[in-house]
Amino acid sequence: MPILYEIRHPSRWYTKLLVLVLGLLFFTLLATGSIAAFLTYRIIKPQRTSSEISRESFPGRPDSVDFTVPGGGLRHGWFFPGRVGAPTVVLCHGYESSRGELL
């Protein structure tokens, strides 16, 4: 096995270059794979944020409102009064989220 011996104990310049290139390739792939795995984990399992909020923590003191949705039952929300004549903005949080994440 002179080829494996030459790779383990390089004596020629092109063998040294080959070992260097293979080492750099290995560590580049290792770093890329580690970063990809970390980013995939962060996308799939984002950190939970503390969204415990109360109406008293907002300026303007929003009003609690309850309204009925056809086929959906009773819904609860907050109303932040705006300027006269200004448009109304409705924010709807999604599944596994809360209004604290929107505000």
Chart the SSEs and their pairings.
Blueprint: H1 2-8, H2 13-44, E1 63-69, E2 73-79, H3 99-102
Antiparallel strand pairs: 1-2
Tally of strands: 2
Overall mean pLDDT stands at: 81
Proportion in helices: 40-55%
How many discrete domains? 2
List segments where confidence is low: pLDDT < 50 over at least 5 consecutive residues.
none
Assembly context of the chains: single chain
Main sheet summary: 2 strands, antiparallel
Element string (H = helix, E = strand): HHEEH
Termini separation: 68 Å
Which class do the helix and strand fractions yield?
Answer: alpha+beta
Task: Explain this structure.
The chain is built from 3 helices and 2 strands. The chain is of the alpha+beta class and 103 residues long. The protein has 2 domains: 2-44; 55-102, no CATH class. It has a two-stranded antiparallel sheet with strand order 1-2. The relative contact order is 0.09. The mean pLDDT is 81.
Key descriptive features of the protein:
single chain; 103 residues; alpha+beta; 2 domains; two-stranded antiparallel ribbon; 3 helices; 42% helix; rod-shaped
